[in-house]
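Consider the following assembly input.
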Amino acid sequence: MSGAFSSINLHYLFGGLGITIIVSLISIIISFVVGLILGVVLYEDIPYFSRTVRFIVNTIRNLPLLLLIFFTYFALPKLGIELNAFAATVVAMSVFEATMVAEIIRGGLLSIGQGQKEGALSTGMTNLQTLWYIELPQALKRSIPPLISQFISLVKDTSLATAIVLPEMMFRSQVIYGQNPNYMIPMFILVAALYFMVNYSLSLLAKWFDRRMVS
Amino acid sequence: MINIFMQNWQTILNGFWITILSSLIGLGGSLLLGTIFALMELAPNKILKFIGNAFVEFFRNIPLLVITLFFYVVVAKDFKISGFWAGTIGLILYTSAFVAECIRGGINSVDEGQMEGARANGLTYTQAMIHIVLPQGFKLAIPSLGNQFINLVKNSSILSFVAGFDLMYQANVISGANLDPFNTYIIVGIFYLIITGLLSTVMRQIEDRLGKGRLQ
């Protein structure tokens, strides 16, 4: 094969897909763990602390992710925190998505009937035990479909890292069609198809969980 | 920080205006297109249903940047299209897929008796849908639509990729000139928070009012 889909180009592009997936996976893991903790903090009313966390989470949630990526990459060095494009993307995405995850987890915890908590407490469990054994497992189960939707957004948003020259798939496709304008349309089709494949399989997973929970 | 605003207030306010304008056009366009595609998804006609589903699944699962750059790079070769419009058209298409999902969800939660009752009174499917079911479904979809519109405002920062002169673009211009990205991005962030914060407050009030209406 020659032209847009020459083996060199394809190899280069799929390397970009690899970076897209690695950035996504690391950000998903970090944002899930951090978001879970933040979600519990938002749900439990810890005096002053919860309110502070609420303020920070709301602020970050209401900012564009692109702004956070630029901030992490260009502004943090002023504070002596130098990150390369890969680390900056992971940090910015993890922080942003963690606040999204936190909201989802809080919503999941709120959707469980108060009776579950009261019942657990009345059988002699401590607050922490109730949270860990009774509330969180049920909340997590309900949170799976919205969490997967959120992670689909995350995969799509990795393309924003093109702006700080992270060599992920979108960036590499631009490099390829930069060589020859005839490559533009084939590249856009291929990149759209690859993103679609990754995200559509994730959304099928979300639908499968959704159906299993209803039945 | 105040200095940066005093020196660049015109640039920042210009960008702020472009961001608001693009979001407003995006909101109107995606509401219209999203409603049409939601109705297509729910239509009894198999072909319409397929087109609606394909559109929604396609635009939901590819990045906004791919759509926007497609208009800016590929379409712009043959048709004159500015960065602002490439970005805004991208925003409309991308957001309308999410809006369609919200509205479809709203319509699905309207009681089936509404449609049956309307049909029994002699309305056609289209009449019943537009006059009876859609308005109720729309009302039920408002909370999730609100979230989509907050996302829309945040996503409008995509215009900075295609020289759309929005707030994010101006932030990069200003920080490139004064070499103080730290304070510049904070100021621009405050402007974004003004819009999104205002939107989420308004949405919360609408939700409260609708919630009360349902209890009565």
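Chain B has eight helices and no strands. Ask yourself how this observation constrains the way the partners meet.
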